[in-house]
Every structure is written in structure tokens, then in C-alpha cells.
Amino acid sequence: MTSLKLGIAGLGHVGCGLVDLVQKQESLRLPGKVEIAGVTARNRNRNRPVSTDQYEWFDDATRLAEDDSINVFVELIGGSDGPAKVAVETALKSGKAVITANKALIAMHGQELAELARENGVDLLFEASVAGGVPVVRVLRDSLAGVEVKRVTGILNGTCNFLASEMLASRRPYDVVLAEAQRLGYAEADPTLDVSGMDAAHKAAILAAIAFSADLDFSKVAVRGVDGVELLDLDLADRLGLRIKLIAEGKITKDDEVVCRVEPLAMPTGHPLARVNGSLNMVRVEGEPLGAVTLTGPGAGPGPTASAVMGDVAKLFNPIARPAFGRAEHHGIRKFVFADTDERSAFFLRVRLADRAGALAELTEALAESGVSVDKLLQDSADENGAAPVAIVTHTCSRREMNDASERVRELESSVGQPQIMAIEDSTD
Ligand SMILES: NC(=O)c1ccc[n+]([C@@H]2O[C@H](COP(=O)([O-])OP(=O)(O)OC[C@H]3O[C@@H](n4cnc5c(N)ncnc54)[C@H](OP(=O)(O)O)[C@@H]3O)[C@@H](O)[C@H]2O)c1
Fold it and tell me: Are 386 and 283 in the same domain?
């Protein structure tokens, strides 16, 4: 398709996130232009964070799904059955490509919908249905097509992960942390789908079906949630060097069948999945001859989820040859430049100083003259050549100030060899 006209059904968190992205598409890297030809939701007059008045309104999702003004139907209503399913079926039968973020729909009816899409020669894309903004469906389906996958594991529900990490960190029981998560918007008013493990199970089933080329059969997915996990369990496990996490898993049995399950697992604190805290999602794919690949990022939220939907939109453009770097004719041209020396960070500085009185004072004075102050300092004993290694963590300063300081340090009589300087990456996210 060279011109995409979206019909967006559902103007909630994700729907409005998508409208916002369409409205600022100049800053994205889409291969062509995207228009919104029609929208629908339950209540036309609801106050929404984006303006939708300029788009044609449809009272019924199914009417939008079959309307000739659209060629892509984007289903962002939710629910495994009901209006979402009927509208998606209608769109596919009317020859429209369908994009959905609806894991319940795909987990319960994905197989028959995929068949309907195939019969009608159209795409059914659902990147946003698993792990929100983490591009795991496409990576598993396309980029890892050359890998024989043995096992997929993941943390696929941010709410459960938040509950387990927050209970342990704050030493508070399940009910108290759940109430806080609801207040902060990390958990739904009705959290059953999340805490029962069902939401993670929907996503796990989708991943397993792709990873192992299996018929998706949700009735064979074993599900246990975090609702039975107590602070006592987390605490005792912690004292044994273990973290309890809600883990989704898909793997191949020795009889070449697929096992898919979601359950709380205890794992060593050094395990990559054990280190994922808060609302992040992580997926780990193990296979031959690859080894393992791990993807991590925000598993929910309007922005990340809408970006995954937009990734599917971009996939539907079908130019004869794709621009190798993804830049289409209509994109602005940006230039490479060297980084601005006003960029600020803390720095790690390592120097070797001749072992004599006053050397350390000279060093800190040289730094101060360039506007660089010391946050932490560590001095080791002198080595066999009489030079004592000194490591410094500076307070935040600009690269210009640090470059200037390093020149001064190099010129110090007491400085032996080349100093080592590295910016310290901010670890706040
Ligand atoms: N939120 C996330 O972070 C996230 C992440 C990954 C996937 N998803 C999936 O994305 C989908 C949408 O989630 P959301 O969080 O955006 O939900 P939401 O905020 O509850 O929005 C749902 C939207 O659907 C509309 N709607 C309800 N019934 C409808 C009907 N019969 N016909 C047309 N529209 C109808 C609602 O209309 P009104 O606005 O008038 O009420 C609302 O705009 C779900 O499948 C969800 O599982 C969400």
C-alpha cells in the first residue's frame, strides 16, 4: 500500500496515543503519509487528550471496519469477544488490513482470524499486543526467522512485576501495595486479569505460537498469578539469594510439543529476568544457532503501545524497494555533527600521581581551575614505579570543562602517563 487511510476503533489510552503520533508523524520515520479517515468509540463527547473533531465519526465500529474510505482498520477497543471481534472479522472480510493491540482477542481467536486474513489476502498485525512498546512479535517472527527457538521466557505483565518488586522493596503486604498501584494507575480498578496471570498468559500464548509455529490453543496454557504470593515468600526467597517473579514460558518438549505456562518462579538474583523491576517487560529468546537474545522496555502505557501500533502501520507500506536507512522522499534531511561540548554529566577520572607531598592538592586545584569539583576520591598505594593511582568521580560539569581540566592534569609535573577520563552514564531510567 502506498497511501494509508486508518479507521481507528477505540479512542482510549492507546487510541489517543495513536492519534497523537499520526498528528506528529513528521518527526517519525514512516515510509509514506498516514491519514485518519474515520474514528469511533463508545462516547463521542468524552473529553480526550487529543482533538479528534476533524475526523469523520462513526457510531459503530463494524460500520467503520467496512467503510470504503479506510484501507487499514485499527482495533483498540479491547476484549476477546464482542464488538472488537465482530469489527475485526468484518474488516478482514472487507479486504482491509487489521492492526490490533488486543492480546485477549489474538490469544482466544488469533488462529481463526489469521485464517480469515489469509483467505482475504490481507495483513493481520498485532505487535502491540505483547509487551507494549517492546518490539518482540516482529523480532521473533521476522528477524529471528533463521533461529530454531528452544525456549521463550519473559516478564510480560508490568503490574505483577511492580507488585512483587515493590512488596519486597518496601516490606509491605500484597493488599497494601496493590491498593497503591491502583492509586498510581499501575493497576486497573479491577486487577483480576493482571494478578491472576491471565494477561501474561494471553501474551505468552501469542509468543509461543509464533516461536514454535504452533496452532494457538489457549485452553492448554497453564496459568498461576501473583495473587497468592505473600511478602513472607518474597522475603525468605530474598534471604536465600532468590527473586520471585511472574514468569511466562514457552518451550518445546522432547516429543516436539509446545508447553506454555505462566507461574511465579524463584530465580537467582543474578539472572537477567530477576533484575527486571517495576513495570518493565522483558523477553528472552533462546535458540540455535543464536544462543540467547533479550529484549526489554516499557510493556504498557499509551505512548509505548501506540508506537508499536505505528510500527505495524509502517510495515503496511509496500514500496517496490524499501529505503535502506528507512528515509523516505518526504523526510527532512538531518546532518551528523560532533556532540555539543556543553553536554553535562559527572565524570570518572583516573590519574597516576608521583608519590610526593602536595601532588593530590595540585590535582584537585587543577580540576577546580577548570570548574570541575570532586564528588568522590580514592587513592591507592604507589606501584613499583612510585606512581599512586587516584580515581575521582566529579560532580556534574560540561565536557568542555572536563576537557580543559584533563589538559591541566596532563601538564602537572606529578602526573605520570595519560589520565583516563570517562563520562558517567546517568542511571536514572
Ligand atoms: N493501555 C495499555 O497500556 C495497553 C498496552 C498494550 C495493549 N493494550 C490493549 O489495547 C487495547 C486498548 O486498550 P486501552 O488501554 O486503550 O483501553 P481503554 O483506555 O479502555 O480504551 C478503550 C476504548 O474503546 C472504546 N470502546 C469501548 N467499547 C466500544 C465499542 N463497542 N465500540 C467502539 N469503541 C468502543 C472506548 O470508548 P470510550 O472512550 O467512549 O469509553 C475507549 O475509547 C486493549 O485491547 C488493551 O489490551 C493496552
Answer: no
Task: Render pLDDT for 74-129 as a digit per residue (tens, 0 to 9).
Answer: 999 999 999 999 999 999 999 999 999 999 999 999 999 999 999 999 999 999 99
Residues 394 and 257 in one domain: no
How many angstroms separate the CA atoms of 238 and 333, rounded?
52
Between CA 130 and CA 139 the distance in angstroms is 12
- Domain count along the chain: 3
Residue 205 sits in a domain whose CATH number is 3.30.360.10
Question: CB–CB of 227/199 below 8 Å?
Answer: no
Question: At residue 156, what is the residue type?
Answer: L
Q: Are 140 and 261 in contact (CB under 8 A)?
A: no
Our answer on whether the CB atom of 14 is closer than 6 Å to any ligand 1 atom is: yes
Query: Is 100 strand, coil or helix?
Result: strand
Placement of cell 494509508 in the chain: 4
Give catalytic status of residue 203 as yes or no: yes
108 lines ligand 1 (CB under 6 A): no
Same domain, residue pair 207 and 250: yes
Q: Is residue 58 part of a domain?
A: yes
On the question of pLDDT at 427 being above 70, the answer is no
Is residue 313 situated within a structural domain?
no
| Cβ–ligand 1 contact at 97 (below 6 Å) | no
* Residues near 181 by beta carbon (within 8 Å), at least 6 away in sequence: 159, 162, 163, 166, 187, 191
pTM: 0.89
Q: What SS3 state is found at 263?
A: strand
